[in-house]
Amino acid sequence: MMKVLAIESSCDEFAVAIVKDGRFVLSEVVNSQIDIHKMYGGVIPEVAARSHLEVALAVVDECMKGFSWDGIDAIAVTARPGLIGSLMIGTLVARTLAILKKKPLYAVDHIEGHVYAAFLNSENGCNVPQFPFLALVVSGGHTQIMLFRGHSDYEIIGRTIDDAVGEAFDKVAKILGLPYPGGPSVAKVAKNGNAEAYKLPKPRVDGYNFSFSGLKTAVLRAVQHEVGVDHTFPSSSLSTRLTASQRDDFAASFQKTAVEILIEKVVAAADEYEVKSIVLAGGVAANEELRKALIRARKSQGKQLKLFIPKIKWCTDNAAMIGARAYFLAKENPPVDPRDLGIYPTK
Ligand code: KG4
Ligand code: ZN
To answer: Is pTM, for the whole model, over 0.85?
Structure first.
C-alpha cells in the first residue's frame, strides 16, 4: 500500500490530493482562481503565482486534515510543463515537505498526469487501462495522441501543429463574447444552437497531427461575414452585432467540427495500432459532446475496445491525477533529489 501526497500548481489552480495505490482518492482540495482570472479574460501568470503563494500551505493543511504525515509514503509534484512562477511555488512546497518530512519525492509531467486520471476510479479500482492504450490529450496547452506500451514507455504519435483545441475553444469564446473560461461557456450556449447552421472547414493535416488555428479563423471570418463587416473590423466588438441565436449556432457548429476532427484521428489511430483501450484526458475531455462522440464511435466500431473517460473533476487540472501518475512512476523509477529538482516550463 502506498499513499502519495500530490501537488499540482502548473497553471491557475493550486491543488493537493492524497491518493492510495494510484487509484483511490482519499482527500483532495483545489483552490481555483477562476474568479480572479475572469476579471482579465484569461490567466495572468504573475497573478496566478502570487495567489498560489498565498494559499499553498493552507491547501496542504486542509488536505491533510484527518491524516498524519506518518501515513504518507511519498510526495509528488508537477515539475513540467506549465507557467514558470506557478511551477516554482508548487515544487518548492513539495521539495520542502519532502526534506522536512523525510519522504521520497516524485516529479511528474502534467500531461502524463492528465492521462493517469484514467486510473482514478474510486468506485471500481480494478478496471484500469491495459497496454497498449492510446490517450487523446486535449487541454488548453496540448492536443496530442499518445501511445502507451508501458508506464514508462510511450510515444507521441500525433500532435497539434499550431493551437491546442482548448485554446481554440477559448479564442472562439472571445470572438462570440462569451466569458472565461471559454470551453465551458462555448459548450453551454452550444446546447441551444444548431450545429449544422454554419459549415466550417476541417483542416487536412498529415498522419495523426492536428491543426486548430484555421478553424478558429474560419469562425472569425464566418462571424464577420454574418454581421456584414470585413476583416479590419475589431474582433472584440464583433459579438455585440450577433444575435443570441447566431452566437449559439456558431458555438454549436464550431464545437461539432472540433469534436469531429479529434474523433476521426483517434479512431483511425486506434485501428492502426490495435490498442485495447482509449483514454480521453485533459480539460477539453470535460466536454460532453466529445465524451458522447467517443462513446458513439467506439460502439460503431464493434470491437473489444475499452474507453476510459475520467470524471469531469479529474479532466481539468487536479492533484489526484498527479498522485496516480506518481504511483506508477515510483514502481519503475527512483525518486528525485528534493535539493536538486529543476522545473521545465516548456517541456
Ligand atoms: O487541462 P486543463 O484544465 O488545463 C491545461 O492543462 O491546459 O484544460 C483547460 C482547457 C481550457 O482551454 C478550457 O477552456 C477547456 O480546457 N475546457 C473545455 C471544457 N472545460 C474546460 N473545453 C470544452 N468544453 C468543456 N466543457
Ligand atoms: Zn492541464
So the answer is: yes
